[in-house]
């Protein structure tokens, strides 16, 4: 009898441990792997990178009135939401429930749709804004990668990145992202501050590389006046840094 009872007890313990393991490693409810025309990201659902380092979804800035919502990327496992990228900086949503991040069935662009203060009917408030020749169709998919990069890839060739958030930084530079001139498009990217801690709209301070080609970083006010510069890169440090 003792052996039988011991065997039953061990079986129960084993079953319990297996059940707990399944719960621990089960995907989080509301977390998706990719976004497509057929699988939009809705409401409070989020995209999580493969190793769980970064998360993308809708957020309302801490300390704000809570009635404006933005598409953002943040570190998933750092206490306190640390936002590294914002999509619709100038066009916040007024509600989350009917919002969608989706791939357009018409032109293959990644777009955020939802109600705003000016329109209760869903409208496009942000888009990857690629020409139809660069975004060939509705089979395109979007995902958040473990370096924090949101990418839109060609549905017929997953190695062909059509658009990426690293080419359009907001106020934070993470490893592998960049600022300066895109030699292919001629676009010049800079980091631009939030308007204030509760409003991610573009503020008056920015950081970028010297547009004249020197290897130094400019800190600018209103994108027109340099108020501090690092000095040129000396191989191991900038000239004006201690």
UniProtKB/TrEMBL annotation:
It is found in: Membrane. Keywords: Receptor, Signal. The keyword Signal applies. InterPro entries: Bulb-type_lectin_dom (IPR001480), Bulb-type_lectin_dom_sf (IPR036426). It comes from the Eukaryota. The keyword Signal applies. GO terms for cellular component: membrane. Residues 32-165 form the Bulb-type lectin domain. SUPFAM superfamilies: alpha-D-mannose-specific plant lectins. It is a single-pass type I membrane protein. PANTHER family: APPLE DOMAIN-CONTAINING PROTEIN, BULB-TYPE LECTIN DOMAIN-CONTAINING PROTEIN. This is non-specific serine/threonine protein kinase. It comes from Aegilops tauschii subsp. strangulata.
């Amino acid at each position: 009898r003792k052996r039988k009872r011991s065997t039953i007890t061990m079986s129960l313990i084993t079953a319990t441990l297996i059940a707990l393991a399944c719960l621990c490693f089960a995907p989080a409810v509301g977390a998706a792997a990719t976004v497509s025309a057929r699988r939009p990201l809705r409401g409070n659902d989020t995209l999580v990178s493969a190793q769980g380092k970064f998360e993308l979804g809708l957020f309302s800035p801490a300390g704000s009135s809570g009635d404006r919502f933005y598409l953002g990327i943040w570190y998933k496992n750092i206490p306190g939401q640390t936002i590294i990228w914002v999509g619709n900086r100038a066009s916040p949503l007024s509600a989350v429930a009917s919002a969608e991040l989706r791939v357009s069935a018409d032109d293959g662009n990644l777009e955020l749709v939802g109600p705003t203060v000016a329109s209760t009917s869903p409208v496009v408030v942000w888009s990857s804004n690629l020409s139809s020749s660069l975004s060939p169709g509705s089979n395109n998919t979007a995902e958040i990668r473990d370096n924090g990069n949101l990418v839109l890839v060609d549905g017929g060739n997953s190695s062909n990145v059509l658009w990426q958030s690293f080419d359009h930084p907001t106020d934070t530079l993470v490893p592998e992202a960049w600022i300066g001139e895109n030699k292919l498009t001629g676009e010049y990217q800079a980091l631009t501050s939030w308007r204030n801690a509760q409003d991610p709209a573009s503020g008056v301070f920015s950081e970028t590389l010297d547009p004249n080609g020197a290897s130094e970083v400019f800190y600018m006010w209103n994108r027109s006046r340099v108020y501090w510069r690092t000095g040129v890169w000396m191989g191991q440090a900038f000239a004006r840094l201690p």
